[in-house]
Design a protein that fits this description.
By secondary structure, the chain is α+β, with helices and mostly antiparallel strands. It is built from eight helices and five strands. A five-stranded antiparallel β-sheet has the order 2-1-5-4-3, sandwiched between helices. The longest helix is centred in the N-terminal third of the chain and has 50 residues. It starts with a helix and ends with a helix.
């Protein structure tokens, strides 16, 4: 009887051990699948983060850098291995001025933006937009940095072109008004000259001298207006060598009156 009980207990232990082994093997297999899935997900996430043309940095509450994407490595010339684990304000000293903003984002859990700010990157002055975003569920901040230097330069060029176009239109209107005045003035001078041309006296001689002075002034002013009219014409820009003194003298001739 004891022998049967012993055999039964032995078989039960073997079955239980076999079942436990099978469950352990199943659990280990599940863990392996999950780890493989996590590795794949991490690879996909890393590929996505590295494909973005924005600087992405994640740092914890102590400003320790946890994530440093490929574009950050390319832009600042600091390898991921060197940046990761470093202190943000030490790796990027230019951000040390915004430590207060960083802690404000952590405490208030609200994003902060620092737009169109000039920084020296390498040896070049660049214009950057910086966004600091709190990460829900973790004590850290995602920092997104975009270089907007080219966009700002283009915007300023467009603004300058618009201002020049406005000025050109104003000058066109002014030239048109002056030309109308010159036509009337020329006719009036002609009529007045005709009224005294047959007379011959000391008084008419003085009048003719006055007319001559008026005509000279008229021609001088008319010449200035013609030069202004030339400036308002839209011309294709063709680079060429110039005599700078001549250009300056012409500009002075237009402006001095």
């Amino acid at each position: 009887m004891m022998k049967v009980v012993y055999i039964f207990m032995s078989l039960s232990v073997i079955i239980l051990l076999g079942f436990a082994g099978w469950e352990v093997k199943k659990f280990v297999s599940l863990i392996s699948v999950m780890e493989e899935s996590n590795r794949e997900n991490n690879k996909i996430l890393a590929a996505v983060l590295n494909s973005i043309n924005s600087i992405l940095i994640f740092a914890d509450a102590d400003q320790k850098i946890i994530l440093w994407n490929g574009y950050a490595e390319k832009y600042f010339g600091i390898p991921v291995s060197q940046a990761t684990g470093g202190i943000l304000s030490e790796v990027l000293p230019m951000l040390s001025h915004y430590n207060t903003d960083y802690h404000k984002v952590l405490q208030l859990q609200s994003a902060e933006e620092i737009n169109s700010t000039k920084f020296t990157v390498g040896e070049m002055e660049r214009i950057l937009n910086i966004r600091m975003i709190p990460t829900p569920g973790s004590s850290g901040v995602v920092i997104i940095i975009d270089d907007v230097t080219d966009a700002e330069t283009s915007r300023k060029q467009v603004d300058k072109a618009q201002k020049l176009e406005t000025l050109r239109n104003m000058m066109k209107s002014l030239v048109s008004d002056f030309n109308g005045i010159f036509v009337q003035l020329s006719r009036t001078i002609g009529v007045l000259e005709g009224s005294v041309e047959d007379q011959d006296s000391e008084e008419t001689t003085e009048i003719r001298k006055s007319f001559e002075s008026i005509k000279n002034t008229y021609e001088k002013v008319h010449d200035k207006v013609r030069k202004l009219a030339y400036i308002t014409k839209e011309k294709e820009f063709i680079p060429s060598k110039i005599e700078l003194n001549t250009v300056i003298n012409k500009a002075l001739d237009v402006c001095q009156d």
